[in-house]
Amino acid sequence: MSEGAARLELRDVSKTFPGVRALDGVSFALRAGEIHALCGENGAGKSTLLKILAGIHPADSWSGEMRVDDAIVRLHGIRDGETHGIALIAQELALVPQLSVEANVMLGREQARFGLLDSHAMRTAARAALARVGLDTDPARPVQELGIGQQQLVEIAKAMQKDARILVLDEPTAALPEADVQRLLALLVELRSRGTAILYVSHRLDEVFQIADRITVLRDGRSVYTGDHTPGDGSPATRERVIAHMVGRAVSERPVRTARDVRPHEAPLLSLREWSLADPQRPWRQALREVRLDVHAGEVLGLAGLMGAGRTALLASLFGAARSRVSGRVRIGGSPEREPFATPAQALAAGVALVSEDRRRQGLVPEGSILDNLSLATLARFAPRGVLRLQAREAACRAQAEALQIRPPALEQIVMRLSGGNQQKVVLGRWLLAGPRVLLLDEPTRGIDVGARAEIYGWIERLSAQGLAIVLVSSDLPELLGLSDRVAVLCEGRLTATLAAGEATPEAVMAAATRNAALNPSQEVLT
Amino acid sequence: MKRDVRWDWRTLTMLIALAVIWIVFSAATHGTFLSPRNLSLLARQMSVTSVLATGMVLVIVAGQIDLSVGAMSGLLGALAAIAATTFGWPLPLAFGAAIALGALLGAAQGSLIAYLGIPPFIVTLGGMLLFQGALLGITRGITITPPPAFLLVGQTYLPPAAGLALSGVLALAFAWQAVRAKGMARVRFAVLALLAPAFTLLMNAYEGVPVPVVILLVLASLLALTASRTPFGRHLYAVGGNREAAFYSGIPIAKRLIGVFMLMGALCGIAGIVLTARVGAATTDAGRMMELDAIAAAVIGGTSLMGGRGSVWGAILGALVMASLDNGMSLLDTEAFWQPILKGTILVAAVAADMAGRRRD
């Protein structure tokens, strides 16, 4: 990458919130035509930095200097950022689901003639922008009908339409299926070749090392490291170096399974038979088809599969949270085989707990305290005569919070203000308080930092050692393989393989995950 | 800690606003506003709306709304009066029937909301019209005068000695709590321990603590306890704060929603009885617009219409603010049209102040 001049530069930027120094003298430069990755644990200050760049934190709320093309700029809102060619693609997409693709692209940039919308000019402009990101869909379709990957492209087209020369992406691939990830990365590489300066924030180091030209690491509000990255050996920025700077200590990034006391000769703790689920969107189709599973006490069963294979649907339907009809039989421990649980309350009573994949939507009451959130599923236990015994509840929650090392250790803290890793620990703690026998974990490490991730791995080990049966879903294949005793692979709602630890290689899993598609090529075209 | 501080910041603003209102009115009326006689009247005036507001807090905390409470109170108050006069039912039976019917009507509305997924705004708007019509049909447009014993609920006072004894017991209980508690809670209990006898003395300086106010304080205590100390109450906060998370935590959402509307309905029964007794008659437009006063009181008292946040005592403070405005302006002989104008302004200003406070967090 050529040594281009800095398109965007921050010098000695500091920002404090009441009681917290979020950024502490951060300096870094983003050149034209480079992809610059920004890495750091949750709470390192990335979000604050992005908000400063986009103008969401106005210029007078922080100290330091921001330059665009070597001229000092002072932003007072997103609009200001846009006039300087800065576009932020936030984690939560800023699209209006009911509006059409082109209306979304032109949102805030509507063109009018004589006070009326000029739909022809807008359509032309929107199509040009959509063509630039390679989105091939009917621009009149409502955005909500698109997949999440295509929605992301619409968001980028929106930025292109605003002539963004500086594109800031915050965890753009967190919710994307793998195929869309590659498409997005290819698009970014293409935009780079056309001179766009790209700041790429991601937890996924694989992607960072695939496309970044330079990598900057933030830790505790400081920029602790910036290094060039070139493909192949001899690159200054290595994976180990970046991780070491992120955590400030050496951490093994991937979990390594230790030998466990699994007793397959004993009756399984969880067994599913002929488990089927109707597809909520297309009731004539089945999202799960006659799945059979057995999980033993002390075992971690990994559930692999491509996006849409039915992994989340399987966990949710098992937990009584399915939105469509479930059929089949389930047995927990020694109790008799029964119909699927109709509600989460039934599943809980039987000893099944689910840490769902979307902790903000399904896990947390954002304005509630750590205490409220931890005790949410077990309140009745602390109220033997109808009135809560506050001290008993607090003691149990405090013990759980300490065991999980939730930070800060103040139970009154509002959950919304915790980092992703600590939020995830709160959700996990809630279920541990309920004392489950079967624990279902759906993407438990998504969007959390390396340190908290290692702690979650430790908990999975510990809980399985205590004799829980754990079903784990993770899109991070090395993580899944590293943690699981066996790996069951789903493809389009069918179980296509169950692999023992020794057989479960990435290649074997991918082969099983695509098995149906190979048999039935017409469906590949559909997706 | 943080939450406590925030709560107190909000309470403090409201207390300051209340103090300002009282000082202004007191000055404008040359002290009449703060006379024991007028404060006793003020307490009685606010009691019916406040009973509704305490329930409304829980409804709104759960992310719902109930527009039918005014009309339902009017209807249930009239039914109790008819049962006592026309049919000669003994009062406990008449009262019990009105409260039970309220719970039933609330459960019906709650079921429509919880099971059929009809928005609460629509269900209770329909309920409001229905109850208004029913009230007209039942009374045939004629005002019903209940028997004298009925009126005791709304128009009598606790004997001063009994009031003092009761408040003494309360003060001791609060003082004991203050000794046991730590930090902000200790301050709060200490203030309450002083407030209970002070309030009683003030009321005794006129005729004694009015019975409707006693009813209100008992209900408010029960509801505050329900909100903070029962699984039902905590579940309501969770359902309103994040319904999806509540569902995934095994909370029976439909039951909780029906429960909160039942509770609201029962409170409508009590409010209706007190209203009829206070006014001395069941009129055809009894309770009209009281739903809006109840909602406004809850919101001024810090309840978030987004759900998940609110407190019962806050709503009572909110009701006190509104009643003070009404009362003070009547004392000043302000033309009636100014009252809703000022109340509307205060409502919007209270929420604006709250939003500003939240952004600063």
Can you tag this structure with a few keywords?
heterodimer; A: 527 residues; alpha/beta; 6-stranded mixed beta sheet; 19 helices; 24% strand; disordered C terminus; B: 361 residues; mainly alpha; ABC transporter involved in vitamin B12 uptake, BtuC; 2 domains; 15 helices; disordered N terminus
Description:
- The complex is a heterodimer of chains A (527) and B (361).
- Chain A is of the alpha/beta class and 527 residues long.
- Chain A is built from 19 helices and 21 strands.
- A six-stranded mixed beta sheet of chain A has the order 6-9-10-3-11-12, sandwiched between helices. A six-stranded mixed beta sheet of chain A has the order 17-18-19-15-20-21, sandwiched between helices.
- In chain A, a hairpin with a 2-residue loop joins strand 20 (486-491) and strand 21.
- The longest helix of chain A has 16 residues, at 178-193.
- The radius of gyration of chain A is 25 Å and the shape is globular.
- Chain B has two domains: 2-156 and 210-360, Orthogonal Bundle (ABC transporter involved in vitamin B12 uptake, BtuC); 157-209.
- In chain B, 79% of the residues lie in helices and 0% in strands.
- Chain B has helices at residues 2-28, 36-61, 69-85, 91-116, 120-139, 148-155, 160-180, 183-204, 211-229, 231-241, 243-248, 253-279, 290-300, 312-331, 338-360.
- Chain B is globular, with a radius of gyration of 20 Å.
- The two termini of chain B are 14 Å apart.
- Classes of the chains: A alpha/beta (527), B mainly alpha (361).
